[in-house]
Specification:
339 residues, alpha/beta, five-stranded mixed sheet, four-stranded parallel sheet, 9 strands
């Protein structure tokens, strides 16, 4: 138990150190756009009138694993919020910043999100938070939001992050009551911020969330996977060697399936379509005809393939394609994040 607590504290300190490093780097200022005539931004301006949300406050944060397009989404939230007259706050380091409060929650400006649309990852940091999973952590998060007048939050993250946000919303009334009972906030504040509004933007390369045709990060990740396979294919053909590629995707086979179609893979394993019982025999027949690339998002199939290839004395290599860290964005995700 002590080791677990120590690990959580080390993670919290690491998040604070990352914030300190980012906070020391200034961004180039950019002029505020006051009058926009024609062009793409006009469509957004038609939906929301200027200063129509005066007095409201929005908190935006990223949580869980990073994905390409998060910065573009942060930029879109900040600039649209400011256009509508809201105060917009960066919540740094995900739920860690919400629980810790202090300087991890900072008011955002138009200039603060200039020059980030093309960058992968997230400038406001992303981290998993063990404290938020416990009720005392959510009580602290509610307090840090209420004292800043924030009752609207935008969560950019995957399944776990959005599940946590939904739990936070469901408990909001009881969290505020607990803060009133402990005299941390007044009944007037409880009444003023009695509703918590949450917008979830799915930032995940897995493309495993219903209700959206493509999640933020998927297309750029797929582009990187295809680039990697194209490079490996030349070596496979030159040496007549079999390559096994494991791609990310967790329980969703989208990345593996689309990459296998785009790169002419000879065999693919996806969670949605488990292999038949006699798949080793069928695949070996295929191997006797051509050299192939295999997309494998399931670890147990990788181990089975390795044992099979050793038994049949095939010359093979295993690659794991993460397709995320440090990847710059394709144009589609730079635009999608702004929407």
């Amino acid at each position: 138990m002590g080791e677990h607590v120590g690990g959580n504290e080390a993670q919290r300190m690491k998040s604070l150190e990352r914030f300190e490093r980012r906070d020391s780097v200034s961004t180039d200022p950019a002029p505020r756009i006051k009058n926009v005539k024609g062009g793409i931004e006009t469509d957004a301006l038609r939906m929301m009138k200027p200063n129509s949300w005066n007095g409201k406050a929005i908190g935006v944060f990223c949580s869980g694993g990073d994905s390409q397009g998060m910065n573009a989404a942060v930029r879109g939230v900040v600039r649209m919020g400011l256009y509508c007259g809201c105060k917009v706050y960066f919540i740094h380091e995900g739920y860690v910043g919400m629980v810790e409060g202090g300087k991890l929650i900072q008011e955002a400006s138009w200039e603060a999100v200039s020059g980030i649309i093309q960058k992968g990852g997230t400038i406001i940091g992303s981290a998993r938070c063990a404290e938020f999973r416990q009720r005392p952590g959510r009580v602290a998060a509610a307090y840090n939001l209420v004292i800043r007048g924030i009752s609207n939050i935008v969560c950019i993250g995957g399944d776990g992050s959005l599940t946590g946000a939904n739990l936070f919303r469901a408990e909001w009334a009881s969290l505020l009551q607990e803060l009133v009972d402990s005299l941390k906030i007044t009944p007037e504040q409880q009444e003023q911020f009695k509703h918590l509004n949450i917008v979830g933007l799915v930032g995940s390369i897995d493309n495993d969330f219903c209700g959206t045709d493509m999640t933020i990060g998927t297309d750029s990740a797929l582009h990187r996977i295809v680039e990697c396979i194209d490079a490996i294919t030349t070596t496979a053909q030159s040496h007549q060697r079999t390559f096994v590629l494991e791609v990310m995707g967790r329980h969703c086979g989208y990345l593996a399936l689309v990459a296998s179609l785009a790169c002419e893979a000879d065999w693919v394993f996806i969670p949605e379509w488990p292999p038949e019982e006699n798949w080793p025999e069928q695949m070996c027949k295929k191997l006797a005809q051509v050299s192939f690339i295999c997309e494998v998002p399931a670890e147990k199939q990788v181990h089975a393939l390795c044992k099979l290839f050793v038994f049949y004395k095939f010359d093979f290599y295993v690659f794991f394609v993460g397709a995320r860290d440090g990847t710059s964005l394709k144009h589609r995700h730079r635009v999608r994040g702004c929407h």
